[in-house]
Amino acid sequence: MDGKHALHIEADLHSTAQAAAARWAELAREAIRERGAFHVALAGGSTPRALYEALAREPWRDQINWRATFIWFGDERCVPPTHPDSNYRMAQETLLALVDCPSTQIQRMEGERDPHAAARDYQRLLETRLPREELPDLPPHLDLVLLGLGSDGHIASLFPNTAILNQQIALTDAVFVPKLSAWRISLTYPLIAAARQVMMLVTGASKADIVTAVLHGAAQELPATRLRSRSAIEWYLDRAAAADFTTGDASC
Ligand code: 6PG
User: Looking at ligand 1, which atom is closest to the CA of residue 47?
Assistant: First the structure.
């Protein structure tokens, strides 16, 4: 590996969530101090629940300026926001309903709509509300993109062998995932790569093989191995998911 990754390996799920929450709080402080706002895209699935629950409790809840925090989503299932599978619903229940982030600063992907129209509208929101680099032709940038990792190496809804992997222009897109027989809405590589920081949060023994495959640059291109970032991708792992790596690896 070429220094694209920085590993933070903790003993278990709880300590991994605490370490990731501490890093979130640090990134939020920096962004708000320097630019007046912290724009973060949340991951879906089940792994981030422990992080969101930690952020909604002491010490992190009161350390973070939620009034200056802008919540985005990395991807969404094409279901209503009240559906049990909705990433928005999960984030709402574990974090957003419990902190003082204005609802006008929480932008969910509208999974209940036509996915292509919802993806286009989400891109417009990103383009109008995210700060842009000095060079206008660069994509706007989020301060933090939080990602989980699927056992097949997908991140957000960038699934293997899907057309969205080749999307290099749009910042969001709709994608039909054959293995799920379902549509998804997702951020694309260009927007994720433009983020100031990308954080991978992966826990559990079931993810050990895919973590090794991704960090050792798997032979076949996995969606996660294609990820590029402005800075080293920070991995927050418990020991079970990082089975093939030593605790506290600084970078690799
Ligand atoms: C989703 C996620 C997806 C998730 C991985 C890992 O909508 O499912 O955004 O990319 O992060 O599938 O999911 P788990 O955390 O449930 O293992």
Answer: 15
